[in-house]
Specification:
4-stranded antiparallel β-sheet; 6-stranded antiparallel β-sheet; succinate-CoA ligase (ADP-forming) activity; alpha+beta
Length: about 375
């Protein structure tokens, strides 16, 4: 789950992590009111969308007066902001962060991720702040420093200080930087983050170390114990079909193709999309019904796939382990009847009760094409769509 920058900073503030003062605004009037509360000659007007690269796209403005704040607010609110992460369609700006300006001396990067190779949290830091960390990793990997964190001990003070030294933080600010990193680590662990990224982390003229920007992403699987965070979810930033899928316990991601994919298991989903591409087709979605899907879930999955008008064919690729193929077949038949399906439907079943499942499909009297293998199914659906 993603949240906005201003929400991330509110969470960080709770843990004593230093961030600039600021307020969220939904209208130009609210932006002016927020600016008047701030004790700063310069105010920053920042578009709030779930995407990076806002500054380069014109989504961050420096205002030297309240009139400037109003002008920039009116300019940004309702605008489709296009960044390198939004795609050409962009994202509509519906809210702003009005923040006090900072006397920036230097910019750095600090981030936390889970390293799946070691099953441990890693803190990364670099003196190349304010730029994409991927670019730094590609062009100057020697400028990224890492500390692997023992889950029993947590981030040790010496590790935080070593990172601060390595990124050439001023000597007099090493202590503040280490405290900042320790607080950020606490946020990452206690809030079940999947990513905690501060870019840039800045030092200021009055000797502060603070997060000028902040990005927190959270593990969806942990949201049952993070109820306060679920309230921060901005549904307007998400695809309508993905929202409906999440309500039904389905994993759905919209893509640009025209072949709907329904599978069970993320690995099988990736393989299915790959083999469709191999045969010259384009997947319209990633849809994983999970290991314990019911006929009802399958029906709901069909509805979600068919709500995309670009879908011209569907490939159902199921490996029945815990899930039984006959149950899936019943769901496919029921969904086909309910939806009055008119586009090509190819089904490949393998695993538990596979013969019963195939029999249900064959005896349904519906226009369903059976496939003997994943490759056979992919080739058939691509051919049918073309």
């Amino acid at each position: 789950m993603n949240i906005h920058e201003y929400q991330s900073k509110d969470v960080l503030r709770e843990y004593g992590v230093n961030v600039p003062n600021g307020y969220v605004a939904y209208t130009a009037d609210e932006a002016v009111e927020a600016a008047q509360k701030l004790n700063s000659d310069v105010k920053v007007v920042k578009a709030q969308i779930h995407a990076g690269g806002r500054g380069n796209a014109g989504g961050v403005k420096l205002a030297k007066s309240v009139d400037d704040v109003r002008t920039y607010a009116e300019e940004l609110l309702g605008k489709q902001l296009v960044t390198h992460q939004t795609g050409s369609e962009g994202k509509e700006v519906t809210r702003l962060l009005i923040e006090e300006g900072s006397d920036i001396q230097s910019e750095y990067y600090v981030g936390l991720v889970l390293d799946r190779a070691t099953s441990r949290i890693v803190m990364m830091a670099s003196e190349e702040g304010g730029t994409e960390i991927e670019e730094v990793a590609s062009e100057s990997p020697e400028k990224i420093f890492k500390e692997v964190i023992d889950p029993v001990v947590g981030l040790a003070g010496y590790q935080a200080r070593r990172l601060a030294f390595n990124i050439n933080m001023p000597d007099e600010l090493i202590g503040k930087a280490a405290k900042f990193m320790m607080g950020l680590y606490d946020v990452y662990v206690e809030k079940d983050c999947s990513i905690a990224e501060i870019n840039p982390l800045v030092t200021t003229g009055d000797g502060q170390v603070m997060a000028l920007d902040a990005k927190l992403n959270f593990d969806d699987n942990a949201m049952f114990r993070q109820q306060d965070l679920t309230e921060l979810r901005d549904l307007s930033e998400e695809d309508d079909k993905e929202i409906e899928a999440s309500k039904s316990g389905l994993s759905y991601v919209a893509l640009d193709g025209n072949i709907g994919c329904m599978v069970n298991g993320a690995g099988l989903a990736m393989s299915t999309m790959d083999i469709i591409k191999h045969y010259g087709g384009d997947p319209a979605n990633f849809l994983d019904v999970g290991g314990g899907a019911t006929a009802e879930k399958v029906t709901e999955a069909f509805k979600i796939i068919l709500s995309d008008s670009s879908v011209k064919g569907i490939f159902v690729n199921i490996f029945g382990g815990i899930m039984k193929c006959d149950v899936i077949a019943e769901g496919v038949v029921e969904a086909t009847k309910q939806m009055g399906l008119e586009i090509p439907l190819v089904v490949r079943l393998e695993g538990t009760n596979v013969e019963s499942g195939k029999q249900i499909l064959d005896e349904s009297g519906l226009n369903i094409t059976s496939a003997a293998s994943m490759a056979d199914g992919a080739e058939k659906v691509v051919s049918a769509v073309k």
